Amino acid sequence: MHIIQSESITVRAAQEADRASTTELIKAYIDQYGIPYPDEDQLQAMLSELFEDPSRGIHLIVRYDGVDAGFVSLYSAWNTIRAQPFLYLSNLFIDETYRRKGLGRALLQGSRQYMEENGYAFLEWSVNGDNEAALRLYEDEGALIVPRILYRMV
């Protein structure tokens, strides 16, 4: 399934055949934070679950000139107020070599298209306030800032 396709850019749902490149991209994403990788068995179990049941979540892969260059992680949840499912964008990553080529925009547009085609009420995410490139991209794409504070319990 191709969500977006142009001459040099393709956005599509990751499939089992993409396991190795998806794993490599996830590890490159983690590398930028300088933290250890999750347990390999856990990482592969997560991918298996998502490949088998995309209603729980999905990774979209962006390919640039034949190379898998980035991904976005979308996870399904429910909004109680609307009594509808929504998507949470957990990670958006473009390999450093391929940045500034419109790939982040393509992934965001692909995420919107996936949301609309699959009956989700909205797409929601958070971003570090100092990530100026991401903030500009999201604003350019018409995303609304929702005044909230993010909490995490571990």
UniProtKB/TrEMBL annotation:
The keyword Transferase applies. The keyword Transferase applies. Keywords: Acyltransferase, Transferase. It comes from the Bacteria. Coiled coil: none annotated. Residues 9-154 form the N-acetyltransferase domain. Pfam families: Acetyltransf_1 (PF00583). InterPro entries: Acyl_CoA_acyltransferase, Diverse_Substrate_AcTransf, GNAT_dom. This is GNAT family N-acetyltransferase. It comes from Paenibacillus terricola.
